[in-house]
Amino acid sequence: MTDPQHVLAARVQQALGTAFGQEYSGEDPLIRPSQFADYQANVALSLAKRLRRAPREVAQALVDALDTTDIRVDVSGPGFLNLTLEDSWIAAQADRLLADERSGVPQPAPKTVVIDYSAPNAAKEMHVGHLRTTIVGDTLARTHEHLGDRVIRQNHLGDWGTPFGMLIEHLLDIGEEESLERLAAGDGNAFYQEARRKFDSDPDFEERARRRVPMLQGGDPDTLRLWREFIEYTQRYFNRVYRQLGVTLTDDDIAGESMYNPMLTDACDELEHAGVAVMSEGALCVFPPGFTGRDDQPLPLIIRKSDGGYGYATTDLAAIRYRVRDLKADRILYVVGATQSLHFQMVFASARMAGWLTDDTSAEHIQIGSVLGSDGKMFKTRSGESVKLTELLEEAVVRAEAVIADRGYDAATRRSIAQQVGIGAVKYADLSVSHDSEYVFDFDRMLALTGNTGPYLQYATARIRSIFRNGSIDPATVNGPIVLGEPAERALALQLLGFGSVVETVAELSEPHRLCNHLFDVAQAFTSFYESCPVLKAEDETVRQSRLALSALTLRVLLQGLHLLGIEVPERM
Fold this sequence. Notes:
This protein is α/β, with parallel strands linked by helices.
């Protein structure tokens, strides 16, 4: 364990048990970073009332019981414990981290984690609203895999249902070849809107579209062939977007609505036979306890409509049953918009009533907030349409190229760097805010080389690489030892020690912004170190080797962290 906060927490908890009895050893020590020391433990204030003792008296009792090896401790204010780590301890832990190719990231007992993310509609283009579900889900998948979990990606495409009747008929009207080319090029929205207008205005087309739906659902060979072509060419477009974004989804991860279609009848029958689902006004419903409507009446989750059709709730319940029984999931993460919160609460509650979800498997809705424009409203084009994701990403690259235009690179190198900086800027801006929060999309802020931005972190790594390039040194060959003399060295080393536990916390809480914040703090600490501590021109060889080691460790932490965020890093900027 190299994380100072964890080490100090364990020490204070041990002292709590020694000073006040083992029943208190599980208390949260309430350790926080402090401006007066490295850390501050506030547990004495929270315990004082329960112990019926003055907070400073409680704090002093803790000091008396505390193992102070490598720690300086004093009581301040009403009962704060100020904790300062010895430089030698920090340096020793940093050396351990340098020798560990995982930089302190643990490998706990592996779990099977199913992550449902991205999930665009096969009949539509991807827009800015799909950005967050895609990159947050991908970061969580990368992080869990890095921790050793078996990750099963599930791209729950909207690839089934009544709209495909009109879409297939429209495809036949304008010709297969032209239609499929348009779909592969990402013209899905216009294609869908054309079909919709014809459906609303042409009774003959409407009738043909309605007849096509039962043919699709009944397995008519020619209809299924057309549907498969429609899906295949749409997937080509999705894959182009995924490559542009640098996410890890592939065709093997597709688990669309159509996959669950054969399971829906059986799932409903099982729920009805178990008494979990009941008939209500002609529909088969589950009434999970605790959910009521505006009239204070129990709120139904409709799993089979009165006309015999199925909806999203049925598909989602069948998916849970499949993911638990067939995929053997320990955790199921649904990276889906926050507006679906009630839906997932009811689906999860219904699955627990059915016994499909037990204490052995957790299902969690990772709520995704909206992307807003500068006016504080949903991010749209001037005409009020959703912003196409491909156009947004291309604009980010063009703007990034303008930012580095004066740096003397040839056109090909400049474009390559701009691709990494532009896409990285968009992804980092999204990931650096809490996933359930809204944020304003602002290219100028995203592409800034200062502040908590992707380009700032990329620039920090490029700066470190330049040190090793100028010294003709391979950072992988540097081995220290690390010796701390300057405050900036100590601050950087202390910051680096927390990397492993932050990665573990990201997976535990599904909060990628915590990793972004940590990497930003590391980059800031390195900037201060770089400005005040010469590396290649250090005063003696011992200091030079120590600073090279700190630089190499910082580079590795930044590169590993940015890789988990799915952000590529240029060699130069």
